[in-house]
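Researcher: Structure prediction, please.
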Amino acid sequence: MSDDAKAAAKSGDEITVVHVMRHGEVHNPTGVLYGRLPGYHLSDLGRKMADRVADHLSGRDVTYVVASPLERAQETAAPIAAAHGLTVGTDERLIEAANVFQGKTFGVGDGSLRNPSHWKHLTNPFRPSWGEPYIEQVVRMMGALESARDAARGHEAVVVSHQLPIWTLRSFAEKRRLWHDPRRRQCSLASLTSFTFQGDKIISIGYSEPARDLLPAHLAGKKAFGA
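Model: Predicted structure follows.
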């Protein structure tokens, strides 16, 4: 708990914590951008990550667990809910960001970027032109965050979503610009971005990686945003 949260608790004000979690690793042997496509489940490693976070949160006062409707998010939330005797709720607002490259591989030199018909989607990184506008992600994610806060008033909630919507939500809450370099997101697999509320007001935002030692080597070595 942050110093602000401790001070608020001492004053008798109601404190609620909402942990916004990114799902664990997904089984994706072909390396496509799966986006909102159905049928993408956690890998064996992803399930270990979910179990690790469930253990990490087992002693916390979690009274509400909700997830994106996509399989990988529901499967990540399941052991956390089970550890607290809860069922996993579903909130459509927590879904992955829409992306026109869904179902394709995406990278320098691959077929999706070599195809001139796709270039029109790369004209405006500030919106962005290839997918769901950042501001639309903010609106739906803030709504889901506030609903979880209300459902767990005075306790803690766990909300399972996806990297881009989580990072966009955090950027908005911390009053940063929404467009960014994707390589600089601080939102690793199975990470927790924790929003502490005093009443309805966000008073602190924390970040932790309970499953960091389980991350694949190429991800575990990445620097955090601002480090």
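Model: The chain has seven helices and six strands.
Researcher: Thanks, that helps.
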